[in-house]
Amino acid sequence: MNGAVDPVRMVAKNMRLDLRLISEMVTPRARVLDIGCGDGALIGHLFRTRGCDARGIEIDMAEVTRAVAHGLPVMHGDADSDLSQYPDAAFDFVVLSRTLQAVERPREVLRQMLRIGEHAILSFPNFGHWQVRWQLLANGRMPMTGVWDRPWHETPNIHPCTIRDFFVLCAEEGYAVEQWLAVDEAGQKAPWRRSATLANLFGEQALFQLRKKAA
Amino acid sequence: MDHAPASPEIAHTHVAFEDGIALECGVVLKRLVVAYRTYGRLNADRSNAILICHALTSDQYVAETHPLTGRPGWWETVVGPRLPVDTDRFFVICANVLGGCMGSTGPKDPRDTDTVESWGIDFPPITIRDMVHAQKRLIDHLGIGRLFAVVGGSMGGMQVLEWAATFPASVFAAVPIASAAYHSAQNIAFNEVGRQAIFGDPDWFEGRYQAHGVIPARGLAVARMVAHITYLSEQALTRKFGRRLRGGQTLSLFGDRFEVESYLQHQGSSFVLRFDANSYLTITRAMDYFDLAADHEGNLSRAFAGTPTRFCIISFSSDWLFPTADSRAIARALNRAAANVSFVEIASDKGHDAFLLDEPDFHRTLAGFLAGCAEHAGLAA
What we know:
- The complex is a heterodimer.
- Chain A is an alpha/beta fold.
- Chain A has one domain (17-212): Vaccinia Virus protein VP39 (Rossmann fold).
- Helix content of chain A is 33%, strand content 22%.
- Chain A is built from 8 helices and 7 strands, in the order αβαβαβαβαβααβαβ.
- Chain A has helices spanning 17-25, 41-50, 61-69, 79-82, 106-116, 130-139, 163-173, 196-202; strands at residues 31-35, 53-58, 74-76, 91-97, 117-125, 175-183, 205-212.
- A 7-stranded mixed β-sheet of chain A has the order 3-2-1-4-5-7-6, with helices on both faces.
- In chain A, helix 5 (106-116) links the parallel strand 4 and strand 5 (117-125).
- Chain B folds into 2 domains: 14-185 and 298-377, 3-Layer(aba) Sandwich (Rossmann fold); 188-284, Rna Polymerase Sigma Factor, Chain: A, CATH 1.10.1740.
- An 8-stranded mixed β-sheet of chain B has the order 1-4-8-5-9-10-13-14, sandwiched between helices. Chain B has a two-stranded antiparallel sheet with strand order 2-3.
- In chain B, helix 9 (324-336) links the parallel strand 13 (310-316) and strand 14 (340-346).
- In chain B, helix 1 packs across helix 2.
- The mean pLDDT of chain B is 94.
- The chains are: A alpha/beta, B alpha/beta.
- At the A-B interface, helix 3 and strand 3 of A face strand 13, helix 9, strand 14 and helix 10 of B.
């Protein structure tokens, strides 16, 4: 590059569905940490539309460079080892979108999220979806779907879980589920809000907002 | 015997503070001169100033032909119109560090206001914080209450960290590049080799070489050669020189030489024409003393407690002098202080020197960070 300075870009237009839904959960002017923020689409959106003090952590250096080059406060780091560096209650919301299934120690990451933030917002692909279940039953092979789209030996997703699994984990850890919803990949909020069983069968992705139960 | 080069008296732009400066070591310099250069224009509300802090052997001639060497400014690829530090938009300041030899108060200067005898080896020990205090005097003199950004690489990055720790309200954004919060044992060791080379030069005269009309040129050149190796990576040296011989195909003991040897010799011999040995000793010592955490009960994050400054920490993958681990330690300390921090390691095989070279990802990162900060600061585009 010789001098041409990229302008700070609006990044919200092609934002993934779960990011759009997450941004609707965040209160204006909140302090937000987005773990696994990619190129920073969500934090850019939260700053511009909600006036949030939004920051990000990302493990892929090329994405970090892209984000910082667009003026977004993103640091290279990893959910498993860098969250412990932050002080208690440093953020109002800590976001982990589509990353929980890829971290080494999901339980510890969740604990850290609710230590450094008042609320945790998580999205993850639902391994309980009927297509996943059907493929494993019918073919006896690891499922490949639109959401679970990498073969078992290539996938970074080492800790897949279902929506029901996640409810169980929250109960075990003493987290209050403040909101949750299931969505399909095409971008529609799914109508199974009342039934976790149906959501677990038909929801391709899940979105949860948690907080610690008062001791 | 190496005679002192007939250095033409250059009139460096400067400001003199007749009330002097109290140094960390307790000595009070009766008079403080800060030589500096500026580029671009200060805006009406004085909110667009960027201070550049230079490295060990650079100086204030960032983005213009150097008056002594005739070579381009050391950061002409970064500072200028429509460049990452855009002088069409920002008012850029760079000052020669305290203890330097390009116009700011240093060992070459008279030791007192009423004598012409120079400090030489008796120049008091300077710290990075002393350098920053001297720069603060300049910034105050220029009528700038808050710097939009402080940017610097290597030792310049140490000054950036010190600025943010000492004057947090005066620094909106801080960019320490290829730097560290303390000088490592390895770095101190390399500096010591350089210093011993200078001490061993027969023209050293216990530091009073000026009185003898000579300079410890061979020692200073060796110091520079050692240091220069640490600025490069093995890949960079291999790419530039490999095992190529200069001249013929055969190697004699002292005749034909490897290209890398003559390159280093050239680096050494041109350096002594522009740099004072006592300044070299003073400034390398200042780097060695630097340990920002030690000044805050050993806890680096305390140096930045409650900081309002936005940080961008940048390292280079092949830099083994100020490795990425040092930058990551700064980023983590800033996390512990809940500071706003960006942290990027730029992939480069050019070693520590990468921050001075054409590295498009680095330039994009710096430009983007400054643009994002300008948006937060409400600076007009």
